[in-house]
Amino acid sequence: MHAWQMQEAKARLSEVVKCAEREGPQEITLHGHSVAVVLTREMYDRLAGTGQSLVDFMRASPLHEQEDIAFERNQTLTREIGF
């Protein structure tokens, strides 16, 4: 990831964006500390996910309305572990 100083990134914003498209995320630094990253929209959407909450995801499940779902569970308190 290429690092750009804030001043340079401001002056060359179009180049920073083009580099993000070609090379991937571009880091922006201020006084030597990373403060931002420029991403392509495609990468941002992939990282951000669907925007759907876990509750909405579960409600969309075909099992949402079923009440007779049986989950098998091991009821033992301990288990054997081999080293």
Topology:
Layout: E1 2-5, H1 6-11, H2 13-23, E2 26-30, E3 33-38, H3 41-48, H4 54-59
Parallel strand pairs: 1-2
Antiparallel strand pairs: 2-3
Question: Your description of this structure?
Answer:
By secondary structure, this protein is α+β, with helices and mostly antiparallel strands. The chain has a domain at 2-59: YefM-like fold (3-Layer(aba) Sandwich). It is built from 4 helices and 3 strands, in the order E-H-H-E-E-H-H. It has a 3-stranded mixed sheet.
List keywords for this structure.
83 residues; alpha+beta; YefM-like fold
Number of strand segments: 3
N-to-C order of helices and strands: EHHEEHH
- Mean model confidence by pLDDT: 89
- Structural class determined from secondary elements: alpha+beta
Uncertain regions spanning at least 5 consecutive residues: none
The share of residues in helices is: 25-40%
Number of helices: 4
Relevant CATH superfamily of the domain at 2-59: YefM-like domain
CATH class of the domain at 2-59: Alpha Beta
CATH topology of the domain at 2-59: YefM-like fold
Lateral arrangement of strands in the main beta sheet? 1-2-3
Shape: elongated
Q: How can the largest sheet be summarized? A: 3 strands, mixed
Give me the Rg, rounded: 24 Å
Distance between the termini: 41 Å
